[in-house]
Amino acid sequence: MVKQHGRHGVRKKGNAVLPEKLKGTLWSYDISKIDIERDKKIIIENVLNHGTDDEILWVLRVYSKEDIVSVLKNPSRGSWDRKSLNFWLFLFNVKIEREKYERALREVFVRAGSH
């Protein structure tokens, strides 16, 4: 069971607790419907990509190394910033196939001939 202490608001779902402070990082989701266990991939990816230092520390406290490594080994298509993904892959010493890596990156520019 995950415990969240402090004066900040939290969202609860089952036995899991999601701090209100993640609302900015998870802006495209209704955090009242996010479950810490079921939606851990969404939470981990978004926080490692866009989170503040405090939010990242929360993820590192709440989720196991195995949870984080699993997310890094199986990144969602188009969800990662190149610098963020490189940093976390290096930090956790994770290697992934080149195709999987390329699919995980958000493309900012439209490639010529891809219309």
Descriptive account of the structure:
The chain has 115 residues and is mainly alpha-helical. The protein has one domain (10-104). It is 41% helix and 7% strand. The protein is built from 5 helices and 2 strands. The protein has helices at 40-50, 53-62, 65-73, 82-91, 98-104; strands at 10-13, 16-19. It has a two-stranded antiparallel ribbon. Strand 1 and strand 2 form a beta hairpin. The longest helix is centred in the middle third of the chain and has 11 residues, at 40-50. The protein is globular. The termini are far apart. The relative contact order is 0.11. The model is unreliable at 1-15 (pLDDT under 50).
> How is the largest sheet built, in terms of strand order?
1-2
Distance between the termini: 48 Å
Count of separate DSSP helical elements: 5
List the uncertain runs. Answer: 1-15
* Principal-axis shape: globular
Biggest sheet: strands, sense, closure?
A: 2 strands, antiparallel
Q: pLDDT average, as an integer?
A: 84
N-to-C series of helices and strands:
EEHHHHH
**Overall strand count:** 2
Number of domains: 1
Helix content: 40-55%
> What's the Cα radius of gyration?
15 Å
Structural class: mainly alpha
Residues in β-strands, percent: 5-15%
Which quaternary structure do these chains form? single chain
Topology of this structure?
Layout: E1 10-13, E2 16-19, H1 40-50, H2 53-62, H3 65-73, H4 82-91, H5 98-104
Descriptive terms for the model:
single chain, 115 residues, mainly alpha, two-stranded antiparallel ribbon, disordered N terminus
